[in-house]
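Hi D.,

Good news: the full-assembly prediction came through. Inputs first.
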Amino acid sequence: MTFVTFVRVGPDAAPTAEEADPAAWVERADRAGRREGHRLAEADTATTVRVRDGRVLVSDGPFAEYKELVGGFDVLDVPDLDAAVALAAEHPAARFGAIEVREVWPFDGSAADGHVLAPEDAGAGHYLLLMGEVPDGSPHPDEPPTAWARVHRGTDLGGHRLRPPAEARTVRVRDGRTVVAHGPYAEVAEQVAGVAMIAAPDLDAALDAAARHPAAAAGAVEVRPLWQP
Amino acid sequence: MTAVDDALVRAFRDEWGRVVATTIRVTGDWALAEDCAQDAFAAATRTWPRDGVPDRPGAWLTTAARRSALDRLRRAGTEARRLAEVAAAVAVDAVPGPEPGDPRDLPDDRLALIATCCHPALALEVQVALTLRTVCGLTVAEIGRVFGASEAATAKRLVRGRRKIADARIPYRVPPADRLPERLDGVLAVVYLLFSEGYTASAGADLLRLRLCDEAVRLARLVARLVPDDPEVRGCLALVLLQDARRAARTDDAGDLVPLEDQDRGRWDAAATAEGLAALAAGDRLVARGGRAGPYLVQARIAAAHATAPSAAATDWAAIAAAYRELLRLAPSPFAGLAGAVATGMADGPDAGLAALDAVAGDARLAGSHYVPAARADLLRRAGRAAEAADGYRDALGLVRNEAERRYLARRLAEVAGARDVEPALSPPAPATGPGSLPGGSGAAGSRAAPRSR
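Then the structure:
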């Protein structure tokens, strides 16, 4: 089973560099089925794109203002949900933030196609698109955004649709105890419904790609640059 | 002021944005470019009084800023490869740039700068702060004072903006043709917001706020020069000029707001009016050739109807009311609806105005605004319903925040509270005055940019 886990850290968390360093976890997780993962640039570099009545509306910031914003993500191939939760609980950010565990929802009922979201050396010029959709609003598109993928062949590096947020698990470790919460991570109007990675020369090109994605019309697409050291 | 001081002031006003823009292009570093522009002007302040004002002040300043960039990068221990890149860019760029007004003048750097500052991926308050700092050269402290924010908060806002530009890779370039109209909307919104901020508060003696009007007019002129073929750009320039022309007549000696109808039209700035009308005519010509007419051009037409009326009584209210209907079609906004209702009241009588007002007054975006009860009170006053008008003025007084507007409303209240209710049949004939409570009369201020917290 394939899972996408989001690292969520609140603005007040103040881990030391050592506490926050995921290197040891990455090494362990890679052996346990982690396919890839990336840290994102700070949340205030986010831009949100919505398409309404044919007009592209661009705004500063993430699509939902909640405390613990997505700071990074990992893609895990593990036998089951328990294994994903166990791996998430080992992530250092689970101690000062939370790890949201979301199962990938293949479009055609088959297993995830296995393609990688972004190359190992991703950074400058790579953007993660977070597809935000209103869970009870417009129906989840069952069709994969094939037209979009075709237009962006070469720049679209792949992505995943996620199972509904109600099926999410949020993993925190407090005082050495693992606390697993069911349901969406936060009660916000627009929940993450999918992720995609694109390569783009600049933000304008990334916003163009985001605006053409069907999710921009149904909800919102958040465009986040990857972290650059 | 000596001739050199004068040249320094003028150079700062005219060249700051150009020096910053060019240095950003060469170094790709916004904060560095500002520091280098600062260095260049400091050097000019030191050397010009001694050596005289250079023949080409703009080229002198740009060269000084580039030199400072290399110095600063060297001192910061920048790696050799990057330093060589910047040095090469400086060398390529060191061909003396043409002076303003020179037909060879390539103003692209500044358009790139303005377009980047006003990029929609930046929060509006960041766009405004970045534009004032990097294009207009206001200091961080000045920007903070203008918007009632601390210097630290303003500095943080600027840092956030520069960091987003760098980290999210907002491109520093003139927007491509297919994106230009959409990007210009953002640029014009910032220009007009700056103008409104200065204009609505200019009743006080706050010179810094008046400077916002000057900067907005200057920016509007610059954008019109850089993008000559866009009707909305001309419309925005016409709008700010035609409103700004009334500045001297808008307040009395005590600093109180003078409604448009009572303004001494002889004190309107004839040169600004003429420039505004010319910009409007240019915009109308572009529309006739197939350009897009938009809200700025239509608002400029409203302002022009006021500007060209020989007296308040001779104002063509029917034309103004029609223009508001067009404006509401192009850019629906409760503020325009409110001003349009007032114009309708002037064109077709207070009852028509009150009916139009009722249609917009319930809009949630007008909740808590003193303009609604004030406009209603003015219409009731004109209808001869003094007691109801007095209630309206009292409601408005409970909501108004601007001191000059408060005194205006209090004066009107005293007028109607002193008068007995008269039967409509006995009321004065057709109202011969303009919409009093909307500052500036055209109602344009605030119709695009809602008043922001300060």
